[in-house]
Amino acid sequence: MNNSMRNPSDRGQFAFDGLDRALHEKARLGILSSLTANPQGLLFTELKALCSLTDGNLSRHMQVLQDAGLVEVWKGSQGKRTQTLVRMTEEGRVRFMDYIGVLEQIVSEASQASQQVEKSMRADLGWSPT
Amino acid sequence: MNNSMRNPSDRGQFAFDGLDRALHEKARLGILSSLTANPQGLLFTELKALCSLTDGNLSRHMQVLQDAGLVEVWKGSQGKRTQTLVRMTEEGRVRFMDYIGVLEQIVSEASQASQQVEKSMRADLGWSPT
């Protein structure tokens, strides 16, 4: 059993305060990724298909993202049909890339830790690099 | 307004089915990252501090992770105190690294898309690389 107490400076090391729940939720992460890849904006119907969401689900998540100032919604008409266009705000773009930076850190630390485990497992087996 | 319809093959492109909710939730992502960095296991009290969680919150998330087969819990005593040791299961390690692979993809696509936007913004301004 590992009984070594952690260093007090490690407190909160894995609290991931940078993972804003407005952005981290799976469907909203999909919406924001779609809009980052399509800076000109996407129609509501396109977003629905790209993110595999129902009308109700997309509306609910859009409300959270609008309230957080991350996306903006435009109404327009094409012929007889009213269309809804969704775009990322400039604040949304900045905050999403900050969030992506936190993910990048998590990925990098997990990959390093995992490689170390595999290295020590190989060492246990008496294997060494050729 | 952007009216170009997406290619039907783009359907679900941003649904992120690989983002298993058992792993993607912020606190559980912290717990799994902590355990990946500490393959020998962590005491419940250590995990609490590392992830900045209360007793109740950590217990609740541990239950989800145990039910999903991602972590295992051991009871032991040190002198008069009963201690709880938490370790990642082998299945947990594999599934967490699969999840990390999905995050890596999201990070890479967002970074590329963002760079393209910046490039086209510089082009709009009439700037060009020196």
Question: What does this protein structure show overall?
Answer:
2 copies of one chain form a homodimer. Chain A is of the alpha+beta class and 130 residues long. The first copy, chain A, has a single domain (18-124), classed as Orthogonal Bundle (Arc Repressor Mutant, subunit A), CATH 1.10.10. Helix content of chain A is 55%, strand content 14%. Chain A has a 3-stranded antiparallel sheet. The first copy, chain A, is elongated, with a radius of gyration of 21 Å. The model of chain A is unreliable at 1-6 (pLDDT under 50). The interface between A and B is large, with 54 and 55 residues.
Mean pLDDT of chain A: 88
Query: If you compute it from the alpha carbons, what radius of gyration of chain A comes out, rounded to the nearest whole angstrom?
Result: 21 Å
User: Within the CATH hierarchy, at the fold level, what is the topology of chain A?
Assistant: Arc Repressor Mutant, subunit A
Order of secondary-structure elements of chain A: HHEHHEEH
Biggest chain-to-chain interface with counts: A-B, 54 and 55 residues
CATH class of chain A: Mainly Alpha
The total of helices of chain A stands at 5
Neighbour order of strands in the largest sheet of chain A: 1-3-2
Structural class from helices and strands of chain A? alpha+beta
- How would a crystallographer describe the biggest sheet of chain A? 3 strands, antiparallel
Low-confidence segments of chain A: 1-6
- Overall domain count of chain A: 1
What would the principal axes of the Cα set say about the shape of chain A?
A: elongated
State the distance separating the first and last CA atoms of chain A: 33 Å
